[in-house]
Amino acid sequence: MKLVGVFLLFVLSLSVSHAAIIQGQEYFLLDHPDSALTNSQGPYGLRLDSLAPPVGAGPTFSTQLGGASVKLVWDGLIANIVGTLYNNTTMTLWQVSQTLTNIVAIPGGFKSTAGELVLTDPDNNVFVYTAVPDGSGNVFKADDSGHRCGGHDDCGPLIARGWLLPKVGDFEKDYYGKVFHGTNDWLVQLTPVPVPAALPLLISGLLGFSLLARKRRS
Fold it and tell me: Would you place residue 215 in the very low, low, confident or very high pLDDT band (cuts 50, 70, 90)?
């Protein structure tokens, strides 16, 4: 019965409008249409001005070009972002993994106040970024933020954004204290990962068995 209850909740969640982040649902991260950077560096979802010193030398990364694919899932306590990003400068695929903790549900989604991001390039060099808070204290936020799509067609309304700093010893302190200007960040659209076509049939079958078992017990 417990398993059936979980499936029931899942079915209900699928019927809810996707103008909200649904706990447990997987989402693809899509590039955000920022015309200024898109025109010069290509579509991007992650931009890092400080992949390595000097500031301003970092690339942008697409979540969709060149075979890239990135997913986000929130289980209620932790949100994970995993997949591959396309480096618009080197035209190579990089691995990305970010764990977000201290999750709090908000209308339409969630916010996080702690986390860390790891990028791995094709040569297995690892770059670690600390999630840092914006002015409201959040390091990452995902919700219905359609105003960020103003002037762009086929954008949103689900938007996720997060803020990062390079975790490289003393440089991190200098960067955060003197130069931080918010361009090490996520800014992506979210779209639900499609549910396999056979899953609703499986759920219907389980529900049917549950009702039959209940009738027999009564």
Answer: low
